[in-house]
């Protein structure tokens, strides 16, 4: 009898939790409607300069919205949007996006050369250059660069770019390369420095522009 009562209690508790989660997720979807223009309806932004939010850790998303609201993370675009959100709305929006699945990226392409006087590269040369760049990014992600004291990304963001949920280190896999390049460049310049102890500022500050491009391109290919 006791065993049956315990089973019923656990079942009811799980059902209630699932119902509450579904309600919160539905509320988050409604409140995230204003974000769809830049980040996509389900958090998969179609514009490379805006980050994908789908599949990102809930606690990381909430932390960033709180930072935009408080001004500790500077963004003229995000600040007024976050300012109107209370803590419940922040948590509901973060929960909604975290429950969605991030989409993969098409095969990366190197940007066109702005130097009109430079000789045009063949398709084979472009392919070889891209392959070498992604290989450099893979090595940097997994091993860092001891000569420049650049830490390996894998230590905080995981072997598959899955991040670290308890530590609020973001998932990176399948993120847009352009957004990653901008983020690392902002960390390097100090334009973005709201992370604990300026960890990313210290790391990115020691990276070359080529290294930033290389690791961003590699991460964008991770599934």
TrEMBL record:
Q: How is it modified after translation?
A: Binds 2 heme c groups covalently per subunit.
Question: Which compartments is it annotated to reside in?
Answer: Periplasm
The organism encoding this protein is: Methylomonas koyamae
Q: Which UniProt keywords apply?
A: Electron transport, Heme, Iron, Metal-binding, Periplasm, Signal, Transport
From which residue to which does the signal peptide run?
Answer: 1-22
Q: Where does heme c 2 bind?
A: 153, 156-157, 200
Q: What lineage does the source organism belong to? A: Bacteria, Pseudomonadati, Pseudomonadota, Gammaproteobacteria, Methylococcales
Instruction: Extract one GO cellular component term from the record.
Output: periplasmic space
Q: What is this protein called?
A: Cytochrome C
- Tell me which residues make up the Cytochrome c domain: 19-101, 132-223
Is this entry keyworded Cytoplasm? no
* Source domain of life: Bacteria
Q: Spell out the molecular function terms from Gene Ontology.
A: electron transfer activity; heme binding; iron ion binding
- Where are the annotated segments for Disordered? 104-124
Q: Which residues bind heme c 1?
A: 35, 38-39, 78
Q: Which InterPro entries match?
A: Cyt_c-like_dom (IPR009056), Cyt_c-like_dom_sf (IPR036909), Cytochrome_c4-like (IPR024167), Cytochrome_c_Oxidase_Subunit (IPR050597)
């Amino acid at each position: 009898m006791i065993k049956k009562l315990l089973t019923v209690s656990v079942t009811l508790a799980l059902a209630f939790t699932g119902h509450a989660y579904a309600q919160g997720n539905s509320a988050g979807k409604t409140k995230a409607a204003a974000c769809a223009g830049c980040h996509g309806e389900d958090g998969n932004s179609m514009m490379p300069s805006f980050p994908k939010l789908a599949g990102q850790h809930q606690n990381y998303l909430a932390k960033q919205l709180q930072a935009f609201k408080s001004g500790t993370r500077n963004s003229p675009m995000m600040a007024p949007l976050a300012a109107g959100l209370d803590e419940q709305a922040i948590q509901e929006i973060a929960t909604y996006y975290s429950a969605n699945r991030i989409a993969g990226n098409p095969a990366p392409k190197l940007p066109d050369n702005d130097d009109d006087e430079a000789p045009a590269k063949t398709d084979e040369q472009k392919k070889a250059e891209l392959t070498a760049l992604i290989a450099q990014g893979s090595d940097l992600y997994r091993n860092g660069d001891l000569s420049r004291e650049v830490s390996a990304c894998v230590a905080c963001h995981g072997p598959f770019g899955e991040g670290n949920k308890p530590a609020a280190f973001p998932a990176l896999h399948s993120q847009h390369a352009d957004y990653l390049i901008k983020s690392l460049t902002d960390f390097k310049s100090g334009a973005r420095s709201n992370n604990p102890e300026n960890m990313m500022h210290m790391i990115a500050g020691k990276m070359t522009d080529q290294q930033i491009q290389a690791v961003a391109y590699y991460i964008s290919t991770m599934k």
